[in-house]
Design a protein that fits this description.
CATH class of the largest domain in chain B: Alpha Beta
Order of helices and strands of chain C: HHHHHHHEHEEHHHHEHHH
Number of domains of chain B: 2
CATH architecture of the largest domain in chain B: 3-Layer(aba) Sandwich
Strand content of chain C: under 5%
Helix content of chain B: 25-40%
Structural class of chain B: alpha/beta
Largest interface: A-C, 50 and 47 residues
Oligomer: heterotrimer
CATH topology of the largest domain in chain B: Rossmann fold
Strand order of the largest sheet of chain C: 1-4
Largest sheet of chain C: 2 strands, antiparallel
Distance between the termini of chain B: 42 Å
Radius of gyration of chain C: 21 Å
CATH superfamily of the largest domain in chain B: P-loop containing nucleotide triphosphate hydrolases
Helix content of chain C: over 70%
Strand content of chain B: 15-25%
Structural class of chain C: mainly alpha
Chains: A mainly alpha (325), B alpha/beta (499), C mainly alpha (337)
Mean pLDDT of chain B: 84
Number of domains of chain C: 1
Number of helices of chain C: 15
Number of helices of chain B: 17
Shape of chain C: globular
Mean pLDDT of chain C: 87
């Protein structure tokens, strides 16, 4: 495909333009402090977006992952506090495993019963959220109770510096987690047969079956992986905000799906890249965060997100119409 | 018979689904390196047979013999390992992936690869291209390619598996005449490597052209078998349909002084140009042409599906501009689309609703439905057109193909149309219904004062139902043959000469 | 042969298999809940409170079903409901609050408020329909986007907190009874009956079903696909707006994020009701039964001191369970053929 038609190129250009505009309106945008903050805000949405990307490529959709993320992390932290578990590795692993197990429920219904993913994930999302609040707990685990190592983890910084007024700023090490996740998913999608089979499945399920792909197997894998990524994102989120709130991330699915679609993934399956998704996520975070910098009242945030979703999807729809005509 | 020459034999194979025999005591032998034709109407059991050979279906009875092995059934994996490859009508390609990946993906999958080396993918793809001596840009997305190239890719991909037998399911459906010749060259080239080709088709001319041996099946039973030289079109038709066609043509004296139902003067649009046509009521004309001749575009333009057409169009002497479907319907045009299932029917809805789909607004109000009138219309039409059902409230998917086609026809007869456009009027319809539908069409033309245009590539159908036949090529009318002079062979030859 | 075209009972059962199953489940829930809480569940008060609370979800579910009939979905229904209620609230704030106006004037403003709410609902639905049919955005993304817009505008208008100060007449809509039946219940039955009539007996409704079954064939039959879908989403918008009136009437307040869990629940109810999410099939009656069944379920559970969250959990599980049952039913029926 020609470079200027590739969605990565388009979104990249728009992103650059947006940054220039915002930077011109308020030069404070270019301060490392702000840039680091932006990157930090990419981490959680970005990792969840990787899971959504996989599912969209396969021709499905997932609205359950915010519930999975919150539930995995909250249950993990409760257990960590209860059992006095040490370190960061174990909690992170636990959260990932919980996420994968939740994902397995989605996989079961989608792969075994061939149910519509939207309905399944609406159901499981509601179930897991209800389970969490109904059985596990409704109260926040705040900074006093949060496991110290998780808080300390987010305080580790790759770069740091001092503002003119003497306040400290830095880039959290968790950004690396996001980078590695993105690279791993990129490798999976581009260089493994499993990854290519996801594209094949999303492109033409009938042909994929004839070719001999194990479709229930592929679906099970991606829904579990998406769950695992949600669990991962959930625990990192709690580490970043120093608390764990079982009512967190309500309505998050819209933002993340919007970011992935913004990055060029097709809601009909078969199309999408990690690079595009990373750019889409960055775009969304940029706009949401920069409203403050541009002195726009925060109540406008939702309106702006809505407009972005509609503009991005309208452009995609228009382009698809053109190429199909 | 020298058994070592055989690649695969099915012996007395039965296959039934829920008590219905799809294949009945069927035996078929494909020799090594031969081009064998499997001929049969739609629903004759051809696709079931393909699925038995490729291991998707297990036969209920009978034996499959390959070499000296006698098997109860094949699995898909076994079939592939033995060198059986099926090229489906839709090619089973991945439109969202590149040419290179489409060529290499199945090979990599079969070799149980876990990782993808793109270098290896391109090497495999180039190898596949080289085998067929073709050259297509490997980086293009398959979805953006023309049909003929997609087919080449499907063939090239099949050849990657040490194929011994390639089954081609209706391979010429979407090809132009020239492309069919290219395909045939390739099939012969494949044959030279000792690969057998099973050519599954219902197009007689092509079968006679390409094959060395023909097996004809009807209703799951083998009705004829032998070297191609033993067959001609008439005999093949007889075997496929089980009936002799009476050659009563549709002759009609047109009163030239009468205002024509439809007139076109220098009518131009996307895909066709300089169309001049004068069509009177009671006429049934046929328009044929190779794929890409512009006939589909013309048919759709008459139905208001092209916005910017140029030239003049007159209906009953009044100039019209058909820029939307509703416009066309208002002006008395009815259109029976090519693909009944995807374009004509609401499968899960009732027969009644299907029939009423075009006349929902015909009451006094365009919002409230004239319930009595609607029920009366539906009942009348079901009876009039002879739809076999005991309850018009049943969903239309409970009907046979022929009765479904009658539903599509019926919904248009209710609109008081003046001009009926039939795009492939009997595609996928069984023989009995076919004759019946043809009779109905004549009747409505005669009694309803309709002018009928049949767009079809079934020359037999046109010769026996139209009072004149027009051949279209490169978007223009190039030939017109009146019914009395129409000969199937002659028209087929004329079509073949078009390049 | 055609004279005997009266549908016989077996045909009816076959066609309405899912509906019968739904009724059976609802009756089962009722019986189980009555058995578990014989005193509290069967109390008049319980049914009264259901009568006040089910119409909101019921109407939103009907709205969702209509969107699904076209093969789409509408994730903006709650956004529209709140947005329209907030606009009405703003109107009343500007005209009524702090003034001592005669009842006739208040009534006039209330009527005006209702009209404005309905018109805004229709316009909001029209925006959805426009984006879906003319711009060509898939329904799920289009309504997701407009949902954000409506919530966003609600936030901008209110600045966050709830709008209060609806006139008393307005809250009567949500809290009064007429002839012993809750007003929201009246509204539900009137609107539901009208909707059922529109869907089954009018040319618009039948066209909507035909489009949902096979959009291409509909176009080839001369049906104005885009126009009908647009009107379908307008109807969805109007139903959402009516829900907005009931919600704000009942709570005497309007807020940008009120009832946001209704979106999922409306999808749940619509699917439970046997609506085909791919389009073409769905009944208002089915939605009514499904919503009543779920209300019995949740009120029974509440009486047993299950928390709201556990009810959510059970609803989600219930949805998946019913889908699994349908899967096996359809499989069995296919095998019988």
């Amino acid at each position: 495909m020609k470079l200027h038609l590739r969605s990565e190129f388009i979104i990249g250009s728009v992103l650059l333009l947006a940054m220039l505009v915002i930077g011109t309106i308020n030069p404070a945008f270019w301060h490392l402090d702000n840039i680091f903050n932006l990157l930090r805000n990419n981490i959680v949405i970005g990792i969840m977006a990787m899971g959504v990307l996989l599912i969209l490529i396969s021709g499905g959709i997932d609205v359950s992952f915010p519930a999975f993320a919150v539930a995995s992390a909250y249950i993990t932290i409760k257990l960590v506090v209860f059992w006095q578990l040490p370190g960061v590795l174990l909690p992170i692993l636990m959260s990932i495993i919980f996420g994968a197990l939740f994902g397995l429920i989605n996989a079961f219904f989608v792969a075994k019963f061939k149910m519509i993913p939207l309905i399944v994930t609406l159901g499981t999302g509601g179930m897991v959220r209800g389970f969490l609040l109904g059985f596990v707990g409704t109260s926040m685990i705040n900074i006093n109770k949060m496991p110290r190592p998780l808080i300390d983890l987010s305080k580790l910084e790759i770069f740091s510096g001092l503002n003119a007024d003497g306040t400290h700023y830095g880039l959290t090490v968790l950004v690396l987690f996001y980078v590695f996740t993105a690279l791993a998913i990129h490798f999976l999608l581009k260089y493994t047969m499993l990854g290519r089979s996801i594209y094949a499945l999303g492109g033409d399920p009938v042909s994929a079956e004839r070719a001999g792909f194990n479709i229930p197997g592929i679906q099970t894998f991606i829904y579990c992986l998406a769950g695992a990524l949600a669990g991962f994102a959930g625990i990192l989120h709690n580490s970043l905000i120093w608390l764990s709130n079982p009512r967190d991330m309500m309505g998050f699915e819209l933002d993340v799906i919007a970011a992935v679609v913004l990055g060029g993934a097709s809601i009909f399956g078969g199309k999408g890249t990690v690079l595009g998704t990373v750019l889409g996520v960055f775009m969304l975070v940029l706009v949401k965060n920069s409203l403050i910098i541009m002195k726009v009242d925060t109540t406008w945030q939702r309106v702006v997100v809505g407009v972005i979703i509609l503009a991005a999807t309208a452009i995609t729809a228009y382009r698809d119409k053109k190429t199909n005509a | 018979m020298n058994k070592t020459e055989d690649f695969i034999s099915l012996e007395h194979v039965h296959k039934s689904f829920a008590g219905v025999h799809a294949l009945n005591d069927l035996s078929l032998t494909i020799k090594k390196g031969e081009i064998h034709c499997l001929a049969g109407e739609n629903g004759s059991g051809k696709s079931t047979l393909i699925k038995v050979i490729s291991g998707i279906h297990a036969p209920s009875e009978g034996v499959i013999r390959i070499g000296d092995k006698r098997l109860k059934r094949l699995t898909p994996k076994q079939a592939i390992a033995l060198g059986v490859q099926v090229i489906y009508q839709d090619f089973s390609l991945f439109a969202n992936l590149t040419v290179a990946e489409n060529l290499a993906l199945n090979t990599n999958l079969a070799q149980n690869k876990k990782f993808v080396s793109w270098k290896n993918v391109y090497a495999l793809a180039r190898e596949a291209m080289a085998k067929l001596q073709i050259d297509i840009d490997l980086n293009k997305e398959v979805g953006s390619l023309p049909v003929a190239q997609k087919q080449l890719i499907a063939i090239a991909r099949a050849l990657m598996f040490n194929a011994r037998l390639i089954i081609m399911d209706e391979p010429t459906t979407a090809l132009t005449g020239k492309e069919v010749q290219v395909l045939f060259d390739i099939v012969r080239q494949i044959q030279k490597d000792g690969i057998a080709v099973l050519f599954v088709s219902h197009k007689m001319r092509e079968m006679l052209d390409i094959s060395e041996r023909i097996t004809v099946i009807r209703n799951g039973i083998k009705v004829a078998e032998g070297p191609t030289t033993d067959f001609d079109e008439k005999l093949l038709t007889y075997h496929m349909t089980g009936q002799e066609f009476t050659n009563e043509k549709y002759m009609l004296e047109v009163d030239a002084k009468e205002t024509p139902r439809l007139e076109a003067h220098n009518y131009c649009g996307k895909g066709f140009q300089n169309i001049n046509l004068c069509l009177h009521k009671k006429e049934v004309i046929g328009i044929t042409g190779l794929l890409g001749s512009g006939r589909t575009e013309l048919a759709k333009a008459f139905f208001g599906m092209q916005k910017d057409t140029k030239g003049q169009l007159l209906i009953d002497g009044k100039q019209v501009q058909l820029s939307s479907i509703s416009e066309a319907i208002k002006n008395g045009i009815a259109y029976v689309p090519e693909d009944r299932l995807s374009e004509g029917l609401f499968l899960s809805q009732s027969i009644k609703r299907n029939i009423l789909a075009t006349t929902l607004d015909s009451g006094d109000s365009s919002f409230f439905i004239d319930k009595k009138g609607a029920a009366e219309r539906a009942t009348r039409m079901v009876a009039e057109i002879g739809i076999k059902t005991n309850n018009p409230e049943n969903p239309v998917n409970t009907l046979s193909g022929g009765n479904q086609q009658k539903v599509v026809l019926g919904k248009w007869l209710l609109t008081n149309a003046k001009i009926l456009i039939l795009n492939g009027p009997t595609v996928g319809v069984d023989i009995g219904s076919k004759a019946e539908i043809h009779k109905r069409i004549r009747n409505i033309a005669q009694e309803g004062d309709l002018a009928v245009i049949m767009f079809s590539d079934d020359i037999h159908e046109l010769v026996h139902n139209c009072n004149r036949i027009i051949i279209m090529h490169k978007g223009e009318f190039v030939d017109e043959i009146p019914a009395r002079a129409a000969e199937e062979n002659d028209i087929n030859n004329r079509l073949k000469e078009l390049v | 042969m055609l004279k005997n075209a009266q549908p016989n009972i077996r045909d009816f059962f076959n066609k309405n298999n899912n509906l019968l199953q739904l009724i059976a489940i609802t009756v089962l829930i009722f019986v189980v809940m009555s058995a578990l809480n014989p005193v509290k569940f069967l109390r008049y008060y319980n049914f009264e409170s259901i009568a006040f609370s089910f119409p909101e979800l019921g109407l939103l579910s009907i709205a969702m079903m209509i969107a699904m009939l076209t093969g789409g979905i509408d994730l903006s229904v709650v956004g529209i409901a709140n947005f329209t209620a907030i606009i009405a609230g703003k109107l009343f704030q500007a005209t009524l609050v702090g003034k001592d106006l005669p009842p006739s004037v208040t009534l006039m403003y209330v009527v005006l408020g209702i009209v404005i709410v309905l018109v805004v609902g229709a316009l909001a639905g029209m925006l959805n329909g426009f984006l879906i049919t003319r711009v060509g955005i898939t329904p799920i993304l289009a309504t997701m986007g407009t949902g954000q817009l409506f919530v966003g505008f609600s936030l901008v208008i209110t600045g966050g907190p709830a709008i209060v100060g609806f006139p008393e007449m307005w809250s009567m809509i949500g809290n009064e009874k007429v002839l012993g039946v809750a007003v929201p219940c009246w509204i539900f039955f009137i609107v539901a009956t009208a909707t059922a009539y529109i869907l089954n007996k009018t040319s618009f409704g039948i066209k909507l079903m035909l489009i949902g079954t096979n959009a291409k064939a509909a176009v080839y039959s001369g049906i104005d696909k885009n126009g009908i879908i647009l009107k379908g989403y307008m109807l969805t918008g109007v139903l959402s707006a009516i829900t907005g009136i009931i919600m704000s009437g009942r709570t005497n307040a309007a807020k940008s994020d009120y009832g946001s869990s209704y979106v999922l629940q409306a999808v749940l109810v619509a699917v439970l009701a046997g609506t085909n999410p791919a389009g073409g099939y769905g009944t208002v009656f089915g939605v009514f039964i499904a919503v009543i069944g779920l209300m019995f379920l949740s009120s029974g559970l509440m009486i047993m001191r299950f928390s709201n969250f556990l009810v959510d959990f059970i609803w989600g599980a219930f949805l998946l369970l019913i889908m699994v049952v349908n899967y096996y039913n359809n499989k069995r029926r296919a095998a019988c053929k």
